[in-house]
Each structure stands twice: as structure tokens, then as C-alpha cells.
Amino acid sequence: MKQVVAGVDIGGTNTIFGLADSSGKVLAEGRILTKDYPDIRKFVAALSEAINKLRKKDIELIGIGIGAPNAHYYKGTIELAPNLPWKGVVPLAELMRKKNEVHVVVTNDANAAAVGEMMFGGAKSMKNFIVLTLGTGLGSGIVINGEVVYGHTAFAGELGHTTVVPGGRECGCGRKGCLETYASASGLVRTVLQLLSEFKEESSLRDIPPSGLTSKIIAEAAAKKDPIALEAMDYTAEMLAFGIINSVVFSSPEAVFLFGGLTKAGDILFNPVRKYVDENVMPIFKGTVRILPSGISESNAAVIGAAALAWNELKK
Ligand SMILES: [Zn+2]
Q1: How far is the CA of 247 from the centre of ligand 1 (A)?
Q2: Residue 117 C-alpha to ligand 1 middle, in angstroms?
Q3: How far apart are the first and last CA of the chain?
Q4: Ligand 1 geometric centre to CA of 161 (Å)
């Protein structure tokens, strides 16, 4: 019998899942629509059935790792997640455990990405590193001495909501000036809109309606040397660098891995981030932290991260 774990990534629209072996190889994948199941018990039943359908005869399922927004690692719950159909506190790990009779572990997607990086990605030999996921928001997983930091409440490691501009841009968390309002795909779009209104420079981005602007379009414009796009990329990189510099002082990582849609901009993002980190980090940390792309392939990274979470737990 070949032993596998299931990695599950729950999002507001889709729940994707897959079976992965102990080397992180994904053997089979599937998806269900999260919003089709407003009743958590029906969701658990449908997800469990779908996972079991992926199993061939000679495969034994020994654990399930789940990445989900607002997941509470200690309690195995999802709590007050605004973009999921289930209200209040949902005992997801317990329900999945009862249904499948295997060990189940739950955490947020950025923490799962950090465990994925540690087990199967670029951080295999590292004990101290940070993963930043740059999507609509900015998620983070912080590893110190080989362990993901969860803190007193299990919600530690939310670097996206550290303040970089007091009284700055309004954030979805209800506060102002959070890092993710600047250093994320949506933050980049906000920066472009601001620059377009403040400056008169020619820009191909002026022809695009504000609601149609995406980080991908902006990155493409920057690659063609559009001045507004380049300025916006540079500002985004500078703000991201501030977030990284503050984290370096706090936990001295060997590397910071950048992951997610925004990183497709490549050198246009990475080079200024490296420059600003190098110029502004405290002297004692100069040259000690590498800014790297994630070592996990983007196509099934969420499944690999969640599967790594399960393997990591089974190792303990
Ligand atoms: Zn915030």
C-alpha cells in the first residue's frame, strides 16, 4: 500500500484538493464549488467523498491537511471567515476527522505555503524564513527555528496587517495603512490609480478603465517601460521592502520567499525589493537575507502546501 495525504485548499469560490505522496508529488487533483455547500456538514460529506474518489485500490490515506482563511491551527476551526459560506466558528478538523478517520490539521493558506516551502520547496535546508503570498492581499507564514509561528491566539504572522503608513490607505481589516494595502496586487492597482490622477505623464494605463486594471496589465506595461507602471512597481517594491526590513529585525530570516500573482512581474519587482532591503536594513543584517521566488510550482502550490502540513504533522 502506498501512503498518501490529502491537501485541501478552501477558498471563497473553489475548494481544490489533491493526493500527495511523501515527496510532495501530487498524484491526483479535484475541485468542488465551496459556495454550493452553505451547510458545513454537507460540505464535509461532499469533500470527503470527492477525496475518496481520487484514491486507487493500492493507496492508503493517512492524513488530511487543510489551508483555509481564518483557520485556527490549535483548535482546528475556521472562525468568522467573511468570504466563506459558513458563519461563526466551524469545527472543520473534527468533522473531517470523524468522517475520514485520519489525522486532520487546519491552518491558513500562507502558513500552509510556508510548510510546503520547508518540506518540498526552496527552504528545505532552512530553519528561519518567511513566505509572503502576494495576491489580492498579502499573506505570510513565518518560520522560526523550524516551526511556523502561531503565537498565543494561533493568528500570529499577519505581516500584511502591520502598519507601514500611519493613517494611510483604508484596509479590509478596518484599520489604515496596512502593508497589504500597498504591497499586493490590489495595492499596486491603487498606486497606479493614484499616480494617474496626480501626474500628467503619458501612459498606456490611461486607456484602461479603472475597474479593468490588473497587476498583470501593470506588470506588462512596466516591462514596456511605461513610466507610471514603473513608478508604481518601484513604490510597491519599496513598501514591500519596508515590511521585509521590519520582519528581518524581528526574526532574522535566512530568506524571504515571494509567492503569488504579483511575483510574475519577475525582476521588475524582485530587483527593486532587493535594492530597498539592502539599502535600508539595519547594518548588522546587511547581506544576511535573500529575497527569492518560491520553489513550489504555482499550478498546484496550494495543494502541495496543505499536503506538506499533513506530512509535517504526521512526522511529529
Ligand atoms: Zn489591515
Answers
A1: 16
A2: 25
A3: 22
A4: 4
- CA 123 / ligand 1 centre spacing (Å): 27
Distance CA 300, CA 121 (A): 12
Distance 268 CA to ligand 1 centre (A): 26
Burial of 297 (0-12, 13-18, 19+ CB in 10 A): exposed
133-148 per-position pLDDT tens digit: 999 899 999 999 999 9
Question: Are 257 and 121 a contacting pair, CB within 8 Å?
Answer: yes
pTM: 0.94
* Ligand 1 center–CA 181 separation, angstroms: 7
Q: Which helix (H) or strand (E) holds 10?
A: strand 2-10
How far, in Å, are 20, 71, 93 from residue 150 at the CA level?
A: 25, 11, 17
Q: State pLDDT tens for residues 9-62.
A: 999 999 999 999 999 999 999 999 999 999 999 999 999 999 999 998 899 999
Distance 231 CA to ligand 1 centre (A): 24
CA–CA dist 143, 158 (Å, integer):
13
Q: How many CA atoms lie within 13 A of 202 on its CB side?
A: 1
